[in-house]
Structure formats: C-alpha cells, structure tokens
Write a structure and sequence with these properties.
Shape: rod-shaped
Radius of gyration: 28 Å
Distance between the termini: 47 Å
Order of helices and strands: HHHHHHHH
Structural class: mainly alpha
Largest sheet: none
Amino acid sequence: MAWASVLVAVAVLLIALVVLRRKGKDDEGDYSASSLDFAANLALAAYLLVLAYAAVLVYDASGAAESDALAESESLTELYWAVAPLPDSEQIRSQIKAYTTETIQLDWPRMSEGELAQEPARTLEDLRASIMNLRPVSDADKELRSTALDRISDVTHARVVRADDAGSSLDNIFMISLVLSGLVVIVLPWFARARPTVASVAGDVVRVGVVVGGILIILVMEHPYSGMKAVQPEAFAVAREQYEQIDRRFPGAP
C-alpha cells in the first residue's frame, strides 16, 4: 500500500510539473522568483533534517532488534549448558532444540508482519514446566536447576522483547513530515511558472529523485524484520550448532 501511494504521488507530481511548465512564462529573475527559491531551499533543509532523523531511528531500531535476538539466543545456550549435566535431561534438551527451530521456521516469517507464532510460545511453556518438574538430589544438581530456571526466565523475557521489536515501526509523524516537506520542495519552485530550460528540468528531476528516493529508503528500512536491513535468525542457527557441541561433552543427548 505504501509503495502504491508513493507511485501515485510521483505520477501526480509529474503531471503537475508538465502543466505548470507548459503554462509558464519566461523567467524574468524578479523578486518573487528569488523568494520562491529561498523558500524551496528552506523546505529542502527541513526535509533533509527529518529524513536524517528518521534514518537514524530506523537504523537504531534494527540494531536494537538484532541485539535482542542475540541476547535471546545466548540465554538459550546458557540454559542448555545448565540442563545438560542433569540426569534425565533428554526431554528438556529436545524442547530447547524444538523451541529454537520453531523460532527460526515459524516466528521469523511472521515477524515481518508484526507478530509471532503461537507454537513456539507453547513449547516454551512446556519447557518451563519440565524444568520445574525436575527433582535434583545433589546440591550441584539443585544449583543447576536454579540456574536453568533463571535462564528460562531470561528467554521468556527476551521473547516478549522480540515481540515488541516485531510490532515496532516508525511513528506516522515522520512519514507525514517527510511527505509534506517533500511536496513543498518539489512543487514550490514550479509556482514561479518559468518556461522550462535544460537546467530547470534537470533541477526538477533532481528534486523529485531526492524526495522520492529518501522516502523509499525509509519505507524499506522502517521495520526491523523486513526490508533491506531485516534482522536474520543467524544467532539462533549458531545456538543450534552449540547445542551439538554441548551434547558431545555430555553423552545421553537426544
């Protein structure tokens, strides 16, 4: 929908350009033309300021989402280390692996739409119940169980944070400001109604390109789990490899 809106806006602007230019008069270099140029430059400065601020916000949001996903995968790895030495931990290890796989295969495709899948959440609940049902005998095993409970709490919290990241987006005020200031940048010089020259047409093309290009860049970067800078589940894939290494240290793995 956003892409369609941008295309419609570009078409309207190009039509307006043709109409205003064809009905224009020779540029007499009067005071009104200079005033319009000055106002257009101010509008361009405002547009570039909003564009830069929006770009910083979406870049920071993507970086935060990547850090949050990494923290969740590290908590899962620490959880696996905690339960691996415990007797009869095969089921829990299987549940950790299942949750990690479901996060990659089920959660990630839906996070670009701003939501998480239900299956990993149920697996995480079953995993917590399995840890709570452990009945360690030795003090060392009790300490490992306590550590595992702390790590499962970390994973649960990290999943909530990841859900917030998936549902985040740039505030509408930034897109509105970009569109309005961009329209002023493009349209305002046309009201001078000067007849087109090679230089004026080149200037029109540059202005339209800067405005439309900037808006498109923000649109494709707006969501941390979609677009050209989308966060990938690489950290969880690394966690699965680490599970295999832990299994080799503690025989009896599932």
